[in-house]
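Chapter summary example.
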Amino acid sequence: MKVRAMLVLLALVASSATLFVTAPPAFAGACQHWGCLGLDPNAIGCDTDAVLLDEFTYQGFRIMLFESPDCYAAWTKVQGGDLRSIPFAHIQGSFDQNSIVEDYWISLGDGNYTLMVPFDLWVRACVGADAFGSCESGQYTGWH
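The structure predicted for these 144 residues follows.
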């Protein structure tokens, strides 16, 4: 009888212990801060908690600057327009809002978002005539 009571008690303890097991906190992306530099926001999962920071319209295109709070990184995304008619969309990063230290771009025939830049930098989205970091005057978001 004592053995049976002991087994019942063990079973109760074991089953109640499983009630207190919790899942680990969910994390959207597999990188953070500088670890996200140059990575694809969609492939790495940083797009799941994306926040639109700023945007502007250029020749029928919606140019958007996104940030992931979990990954603490930003990227530029483009929607609309004829994807063969716009030159280049950029995500730029700067320590001082003057000298560009990181710049990723897309030719819009190649896709609709850039790679990521860490949000430790000041970041902005812009449109340029080439892939060399020069953006057209007035064709950019504010620094964030």
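To summarize the output: The two ends are 71 Å apart (CA to CA).
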